[in-house]
Write a structure and sequence with these properties.
Layout (H helix, E strand, L loop, with lengths): L1 H14 L21 E2 L11 E9 L2 E9 L5 E2 L19 E6 L2 E2 L6 E7 L2 H14 L9 E12 L14 E9 L4 E6 L9 E4 L4 E4 L1 E5 L2 E2 L5 E2 L2 E5 L2 H5 L12 E7 L8 E2 L70 E4 L16 E3 L7 E3 L18 E6 L2 E6 L3 E3 L4 E3 L4 E13 L6 E13 L4 E6 L4 H4 L7 H9 L2 E2 L6 H5 L2 E10 L5 E11 L5 E11 L7 E3 L3 E8 L2 E13 L9 E13 L15 E14 L4 E11 L12 H4 L8 E5 L5 E5 L3 E3 L4 E3 L2 H4 L8 E6 L2 E6 L3 E3 L5 E3 L8 H4 L10 E5 L5 E5 L3 E3 L4 E3 L12 E6 L2 E6 L3 E3 L4 E3 L6 H12 L27 E3 L6 E3 L46 E6 L2 E8 L2 E2 L5 E5 L5 E7 L4 E6 L4 E6 L6 E4 L6 E7 L4 E6 L4 E6 L6 E4 L6 E7 L4 E6 ...
Length: about 1250
Amino acid sequence: MRAAWTRALLLQLLLAGLGGCLSRGGLFPFGPGAGDLELEAGDDRVSPALELSHGLRFFDKSGIYSLYVTTNGIITVSEPPAEESHPGLFPPTFGAIAPFLADLDTTDGIGKVYYREDTSHSVTQQASDYVQKGFPEVSFYPVSVVVVTWESVAPYQGPTKDPSQEGQRNTFQAVLASSDSASYAIFLYPEDGIQFYTTFSKKEKKQVPAVVAFSQGSVGILWTSNGAFNIFANDKESVGNLAKSSNSGQQGVWVFEIGSPATASGVVPSDVNPELDDETDYEDEDYDSVTHLGLEDVSTTTFSYEAPKRGDTDTYEVPSVLSPHPLATERPPESPTERTRSFQVPVERFSQQHQQVIDVDEVEETGVVFSYNTDSRQTCANNRHQCSVHAECRDYSTGFCCSCVAGYTGNGRQCVAEGSPQRVNGKVKGRIFVGNSQFPISFENTDLHSYVVMNHGRSYTAISTIPETVGYSLLPLAPIGGIIGWMFAVEQDGFKNGFSITGGEFTRQAEVTFVGHPGKLVVKQKFSGIDEHGHLTIDTELEGRVPQISFGSTVHIEPYTELYHYSRGVITSSSTREYTVTEPERGGTTTSDVYTYQWRQTITFQECTHDDSLSAQPSTQQLSVDSVFVLYNQEEKILRYALSNSIGPVRDGSPDALQNPCYIGTHGCDTNAACRPGPGTQFTCECSIGFRGDGRTCYDIDECSEQPSVCGSHAICNNHPGTFRCECVEGYQFSEAGTCVAVVDQRPIDYCTTGLHDCDIPQRAQCIYTQGSSYMCSCLPGFTGDGRACQDVDECQSNQCHHDAICYNTPGSFMCQCKPGYQGDGFRCIPGEVEKTRCQLEREHILGAAGTVDAQRPLPPGLFVPECDKHGHYAPTQCHGSTGYCWCVDRDGRELEGTRTRPGMRPPCLSTVAPPVHHGPSVPTTIIPLPPGTHLLFAQTGKIEHLPLAGSTMKKMEAKTLLHTPDKVIIGLAFDCVDKMVYWTDISEPSIGRASLHGGEPTTIIRQDLGSPEGIALDHLGRNIFWTDSRLNRIEVAKLDGSQRRVLFDTDLVNPRGIVTDSVRGNLYWTDWNRDSPKIETSYMDGTNRRILAQDELGLPNGLTFDAYSSQLCWVDAGTHRVECLNPGQSGRRRVLEGLQYPFAVTSYGKNLYYTDWKTNSVVAVDLAVAKEMDTFHPHKQTRLYGITTALSQCPQGHNYCSVNNGGCTHLCLATPGSRTCSCPDNTLGVDCIEQK
């Protein structure tokens, strides 16, 4: 078993860098010569039952002894009904395995479909090898293999054939391998095997993409419903990549666990992670790039859904995939909402108090990242929200401490779900002398990525772009990545790994002395806990000398143990290790030599000193490290380390001696269960809170059915996996005591007077009160519609003006103006000139006196002639044609003192006629509805989705993908209502891009000098974009094309995220979710008048939105789980809604507010007027949602001082209240730029 595991892990590491496609020769043997049966030729054919000698397991079922094969790319566990013989909506009512579900055709012998059960050694071994590649931690050998091959099958094309599909044929294979305890599916797509991606649908009468999926089928006896199902590809892009990518390390090969205790609620895909090469993953607390099977994956661009991984227990880490029973994240109850409240089942194992966070101070001199503030005032009461959201706070006589609740592990300040895979990201820099060289090899800003399988204590670490001159010589230094293995080592009873002790916040310094070789290597590492992306962060520095290892050599390190000695805040260890270097073959022989190095390290961290029980842990613990693999990929310049780790008592002998199945991951407990070790090799499986069962199979407890009165009277109970939620019925709300009480005032409401109607804005419609609580909406004259959505009537189409006049349509009206050479009111025009303006008269007088009536002819030297704008007013900037001097003038043409510039330069001048200021309607502004044609745009990792709106209602059936960029992780969105362009931030490259709603290729406008661009905002009047960068901790501005960048703020920022503009008033607003001191700030757009708007009672303020009509600034907070609003010009703020799950981004317009939620993977609509969630939209693909913005069909009314002639500025025009500032970009060296307020 150990040899098989070793071979599988080595294959996994080697295959992570492979790029070769699967050839047809790589398929399992098929055809008559392999003993296959052949499906009858034709369309929509179904085979007779294939009787199996050994039962197949599928989802939560076992003992499936019959399978059916169809023409249309699926294998079924029961005979499909006649009405479902051709493909339709997924999922079907029957259990199905679909490697390529599409309407395929083998009529007239075009293509073949072969199938058989095979128990031969060669085929079962081949299947075992593929499964081991995809699941290296599993020891699996099948006793039965079902092989189904679709060879050169054609697409069904319907009545109108698609010429582009003429002659195209697909070849693919599905292999189902079963042992006594589990079943796996292997899908194989050879190179050039997938030539078409769509087929004609008999139901939809159009071309539809193929689907790669699994379905449990209908479940239930008296009342049936869809069982669990997983869709992994259902669009042209993902289907087109089936042969080009993989989840198992070899292109074209996809492996899935389809039947075992781990698949009760969904198929588990392989999770071999080649993305550790050179991509950064973002997930959980802040970002998730969907690193499993998603089209949204930064580095794997094939499948469309993030799927559960083997051993997952918490969908906060890994959302369930389209399962009717997704797992829920367990969270203690928060404050009640107006109408809804969440509850948890009482548990005796721990007291569910409000979560707290430790108040921390940074200490740089000692190298300690965090220190507890021991001031006597520091208690849980005045430090709430300071612990992890999965921790509880306890007061002690000298202070407080945090501890993770059951089901989570960590030091209380940082907690992660037990058994959940973890990711570690960071940077590496080095200055290393190799061998006897006198010249160091230097590198910096090199990426380090590590993936940890916590249930098995196994860490995979990849360091990219390591020069080959030093790459091989670093192979023996597995402890560089071994520190990550110590952090998440499997804990034996009574012992703690590094993360349980430090929470991932510590510094480490190590010295490596190579025996018999001069010099030493110093390793410095700083772990900074969980970052804004939900990953642990590490910075590594290497300096010193290492022995030279020849190119092409391999290094082998035997399993070893290491003793860790613990004292207050310090951990030390030292050891001597051997490694074997095998040089590449030369002259038919290879040489191997054994070398030794001595290792010493010191780990410094800060622990809570108030809880005496924390000091009771053993003073010495033994780390056992097994299955050590080190590889250097010369072609990709990637250094890889893989180790398995466990922490326990000091003992002699094998590291595996006396290990319990809970420690080594062979327990087989349900994904919603914890493994509890017993004596020796005994253990028990215990279902998680809110679930019931024997531990190997756990079912959700329906608290609403078992306790019908749990919510009390006048309330509705809604069951959720692991928990339940109470909601007051209409007319009732939660009281302080937690019960539903009647709303006091039930009298009829005049919605027109109170402003709570949904009529269009007062400029387009009127609300007419009828009686009781009824009203009607009516469009004003000049508009047409139903009163709730009114559109302007273009009166100019009816030719109401004089034939010698020009008609100008205006909202609700029109204007007639006589043509040049005519005068009158526009309805009647007679020949004659319009009265000239002062500027025009002065200009004619000067030209006439000079005898130069034609303005195009050269002027006499020294003569100045004023310039007039198109309306006849003095142009704000006037220049002397002979001398080249320029100056600013007022509305009467008088020169403004101090504005004259030297020849060749134009001063920034304000318009001589001030732009009108839009003050908004005089009625209650929260009732302003959305203009017709408005829609929402929201980001879903590598996609931007389009969701139309009808009034405040989301038109869910019309949602569609606007933009698909699978190599990006799109976070922030902003919309330009002028050019109809969407702008976004991408943290994968990183970059800022834009695309038109009318089509065309997306373009990247900024890609240099970015760290992690997140929030983005747009001033549609001044034509500028603003964005936050949480890695560089700054806020910048640039023109819409990305030019003229300028840093506005780079101080007093820790985690800036959401950002919005008030274009008319010239204000800027942003959030900073700094855990220690979250805040919401504002300034003018030019960066002046910076101040804090809110900083009390904030947790994780993420999204921010500003509504120009109501002057309301609203935000969503993932720490307090609230929506709150304030008016920046007034004091006080109001809580709109409480009890949110995990809000991320938000947008609003009038009374309508919409936010994206990470926990529910949905867009939620909120009515601000009644403070209530009104609707929820769940995208078809259940992956994490990020930014959201409102794409208005027409721009809001209003101007600022930059909206005309760029405010007279030479470069950046940044609006301020009642004025503007002309600013220069940061890179203006040698550029003529004038800064002026």
